[in-house]
Amino acid sequence: MQKTMSKTAPSRDGAKRYCLGMMLALLLSGCAVGPDYQAPELALPDTWPEHITLSQSERDDWRNWWQQFDDPALDRLVTRATQDNLELTIQLARIQEARAQLGFTEADQFPTVGYQAEATRERTPGAALPIDFEPIQDLLTTTNNQYTLAASLEYEIDLWGRLANERESAKAAFQQSQFARDAAEIGVIGDVVTTYFNLKSAEAQRQLLDETITSYEETYHLQRLRFEHGDISELDVRRAEAELQGLRAERPALARQVESLRGALGVLVGMSPQELISALDTGNSQLADITQPERIPQVMPSELLQRRPDIRSAEASLIAATAQVGVAEANRLPSINLTSFLGTSAVSGGDLFSNAARTWGVGASVMGPLFDFGRTQAGVDSAEARVEQAEAQYRLTVLTAFNEVRDALYTYDFTSQRSAAVEDQISAVQRARDLAVLMYDQGQVSQLERLDAERSLLSARLEQADARREQLAAAATLFKTLGGGWQAEHEANQDATP
After folding, report:
1. Which domains does the chain have, with CATH numbers?
2. CA-CA distance, 306 to 497, in Å (whole number)?
3. Each residue's pLDDT tens digit, 256-310
4. pLDDT above 50: residue 489
5. Which residues form a coiled coil (predicted)?
């Protein structure tokens, strides 16, 4: 019986120790203060409006969505912009700063191990002692050496979760900087694409104007010859000259617009000042050669919260602000710090590592505010106010994003309608111009009617170039507002979802 008791007693003691350890762990884990993050509830639509063009179920790999326009020059410009754009360079530096801050908070959760090495030589004068006899003072004057070598350890027990909340806040801030950089990249790419389309439209309009000017010059010279032979009056010549000079007066404005867009595009892609001035190359593509995407993959409204990096950046800011409330609340409570050191100290270097020179110490301290006249409470109130601001900013970002998508969808739909209407207009105006030329040659209409028909055709062609630019820009804006491109892994996840 005694042997049995000797075997069971240790097991009971071990069970007690285990239970005490579990209770202590649960107690310490339950001491963390501060609110847990909960995503704000949002009333999201189930679907987009039915009549808007966003109903294609087939998805391609739209990761690099600008490649759907099938323009190698545009691809090169976008690639360079993602590498050399100065705004993205600034965002990348902010990511590095946030990563470093996250490293600080992660390191704070571990003990700090340090070392100290010290060597001193000190002379103690006998005159400092309360003895007036000088010979004795000389005898009492000493010179001593002191050598010390020690290692120290400091550790703060994260009883209230302050360090954990700081790490959570820093991690969210790091994610926020990453999402902010992604949002900036999407914005830069969208600006490059739309500026490129504006440039190609301006170049197309300038080329069309040049061709029309050449045609008007030939007409003017022909009218002068007919006037010199007495076939027409001077009024017809002056009308042809006035139309020609009017077109020439429009060309400088278009040329200025082209160069202005070239410069803006050069800044977006990060060209050097030398390239901007002397070697600015934006490609030789024509507006008519750019492919208009015909398929827009289907996107559910709820996906927008994960696809838009600006929304995820705002949510990360809200997570960081929520964690800071826990930090502020923990600052109101006592903090427990453990310290220890182990070393050796001797007056002679030879005795430095002897047993007699060994020194050590352990300690613990509890520190906390007693009367701070509301400072720590003000810190909590300030942190909670920042949470309210971050939540409002998150809701505003979501609302703005959905409104941008709504506008982009309607714009995409309406620009397609306008482009089709302009094409029909071109056919009618072209036929009217051909008839005016034929009837003028037969003497059935006046030169003024023919010039009006020519001017109408020029206006219709300029509007055609603008409508095509607008349609291409609308597609680019739609891709941008939907969060960029569709990645293959995103598609796989969607296919796996029942």
Report:
1. 34-109+158-333+368-496 (1.20.1600.10), 112-157+334-367 (2.20.200.10)
2. 15
3. 998 899 888 888 888 878 777 776 777 788 888 888 887 666 677 888 888 888 9
4. no
5. 199-257
